[in-house]
Every structure is written in C-alpha cells, then in structure tokens.
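User: Some background: our group keeps a shared notebook of sequences we're curious about, and every so often someone picks one and asks for a predicted structure to add to the entry. Today it's my turn. The entry only has the sequence so far, pasted here. Could you supply the structure so I can complete it?
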Amino acid sequence: MPLQNRVTPSGELIATRARGTVMGNRGILHDDRRRIVRSTRNRAWLICRLEFQGRRRAVMSPGSYTELFFLDETVALAAGHRPCGECRRSAYRAFLDAVNASGAVELDRRLNTSRRAPNEVARIADLPDGVFLRIDGDRLKWQGALHRWTPGGYVDPVPVADAGANTAMVLTPALSVDALRHGYAVEVHPTVKQ
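Assistant: Of course. Here's the predicted structure to add to the notebook entry:
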C-alpha cells in the first residue's frame, strides 16, 4: 500500500503509486507507524532533488523529516514549497533573486504568509507559465494551454482561448507567481509536452 506522502497542487497529502520528479519536506509529519499526523511542522517547505551526492534515506524513518513527493516543481511551487538551498543551490539562488529576498529566513517568512493568504481569482491571460489554476480540476498553465494535473502526469490540455472562462482561482501562492513572472525557470514534468 502506498504511503500518504504525495502532494497535490493544493498541498493535500495523498497516497498513490504514481512517481514524481522532485521531493521535499515540511518537517516531521508522520508517526512511528508512518501515518501522517499533521500537515506541517515548520516554515521551511523545501523542494529537493530525488538524488543528491549519493545519499540514501529510508522513507518516513522515525524521528526524521517526512519525505514528500511531487509530480514536478510546478506542483511543489503551487503547494507552497521553495527550492532547497543545498541540493538545488542554483534554483534556490534564482528564486531568491526573482522575489528579491535576502536569504532563507526572509524567504520562508514571506512564503509562509503567501501560502496562508486566501486564493485569489485572476485573469488567466495575465498569469505566467508554471501557475496552477482551479478550473475544471487543477490545471497548469503552460505554453498557451491549461493541462489537467493527475498524480501520474498531465492530461487533457485545453487552449487558454477555449477554457470557457477568462478568470480562475489561482492555487500557486502569490510569492511564487511573482517568482515565475520575474523569470524563475521552473522544471515541468515531460507529460506536459506530449
């Protein structure tokens, strides 16, 4: 049975056999029986590489942070996470620059405030690529289309012009939207390009 450590664009933790391209954490969220008992433990919600310097971890070890998995970086950003300063150093620096933050403490404080704010409704055409919207499910805006998220990949792309609405609820926190708007280059799952 799969563990409840896969993350949706809205930040919900689900159990699925689907694999992702990045991992991250929010602190220790599980108990000794590897059951999720809380949704967060700290302000530093990270996006990490699946592999880094040959390190190996037993998933959901007692007393250690809970490994969370995301389809891709766009999902992780929508869920309120940010690049890790160790294993994704260049992405971390690019994210800091894109949001004009001086370091991790300031970034985590601002991102925590942003992910706790109510979701806004915005004009779809005004949003940058890499943003998640709630419109007929959770959809990623990417290269002129809205791609429906599933745990295993993106499906059912619809051209933005055919979305049936000009506005939608934005799932991605405003600070991460700003990062994308200011040139942060996000990594996207290959199914979006099919």
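Suggested note for the entry: The helical segments are 73-78, 89-99, 104-116, 174-181. The longest strand covers residues 153-159.
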